Amino acid sequence: MTTQRTVLITGGNRGIGRAIAEEFLAAGHRVAVTSRSGEGGPEGALTVAADVTDSASVDAAFSAVEAEYGPVEVVVANAGVTKDGLLLRMGEDDFTSVVDTNLTGAFRVIKRASKGMLKSRFGRVVLLSSVVGLYGSPGQINYAASKAGLVGIARSLTRELGARNLTANVVAPGFIETEMTAVLPEETQRQYLASIPAGRFGQVDEVAKTVRWLASDEAGYISGAVIPVDGGLGMGH
Ligand SMILES: NC(=O)c1ccc[n+]([C@@H]2O[C@H](COP(=O)([O-])OP(=O)(O)OC[C@H]3O[C@@H](n4cnc5c(N)ncnc54)[C@H](OP(=O)(O)O)[C@@H]3O)[C@@H](O)[C@H]2O)c1
Fold first, then answer.
1. Alpha-carbon distance 141 to 123, whole Å?
2. Span 6-221: which CATH code?
3. Residue of 10, 13, 36, 205 to mutate, ligand 1, most atoms within 8 A of C-beta
4. Burial of 235 by CB count in 10 Å (0-12 exposed, 13-18 middle, 19+ buried)?
5. Helix pair 204-214, 15-26: axis angle to 10 deg
6. Per-residue DSSP letters for 118-161?
7. pTM, whole model, 2 decimals?
């Protein structure tokens, strides 16, 4: 039986984030999620409003969770967006806005989380990257850059605070069936499917179980790792 923790998941109102919240709830943890509207988390979770592009809003969300549940011990930086386009047509704003949400957003979240983790002498940080971060993907230079950057964050955080009973790991999902992938053209979906050794797309609960395990007592000696949940799509990267 693993210790019950206070867990905060960004973007926990839908998709992978919501599945992660449900997984932690089922294991008996105290779960809070953020959504931009402040609504829509799963039953049993505390839902608070936060936009990860805004430090003040991230700070307010943590304060609300701390008031209810005490310090956040497990943080899952899951909120993310795509704005795909080929390099020649990608405006600078398409690049910086994706990086601001996916990478700088994760920075804002872990910076705020680290205060409580240092005080509690326990911390688990899980960052949602993507197979695309290390594998690359045409039309996703902005997204791939943001997701590759998360590996640097997890590894530097591990070197900074690893001796303080804090672990920081990256989960790199492949093609998971959510709203994010549903909008991809059929031809792109077919091409992905053909290159996935497992021969199928992934499900949100397959990512969620991996995240929950990385935050458990059992995974206490794993840090700075990149764990793929991709049916073999990115093998060797
Ligand atoms: N689906 C996949 O195949 C796949 C593969 C690899 C990695 N991932 C990564 O896994 C994570 C979740 O993906 P998903 O497929 O579940 O995506 P999704 O269904 O599109 O959900 C995205 C979540 O991020 C939140 N979000 C977006 N911008 C935000 C902001 N500025 N501030 C706060 N929250 C924000 C959204 O909140 P709102 O509801 O308020 O918009 C939503 O909860 C992302 O980081 C994604 O890059 C997904």
1. 31
2. 3.40.50.720
3. 36
4. exposed
5. 50
6. HHHT-EEEEEE--HHHHH--TT-HHHHHHHHHHHHHHHHHHHHH
7. 0.98
* Per-residue pLDDT tens over the stretch 109-121: 999 999 999 999 9
Hey, whose CA ends up nearest to atom 1 of ligand 1? 176
- Of 208, 203, 109, 121, whose CA–CA distance to 154 is shortest? 109
User: What is the per-residue pLDDT across 128-146, written as a single tens digit (0 to 9) for each?
Assistant: 999 999 999 999 999 999 9
Q: Look up tokens 């997701």; give the residue.
A: 147
- Determine whether 135 is an active site residue: no
Catalytic residue (choose from 69, 135, 143, 192): 143
Q: How many angstroms separate the CA atoms of 9 and 39, rounded?
A: 13
Q: What is the pLDDT of residue 1?
A: 57
CA–centroid distance, residue 15 to ligand 1 (Å): 7
Hey, where are the domains in the chain?
6-221
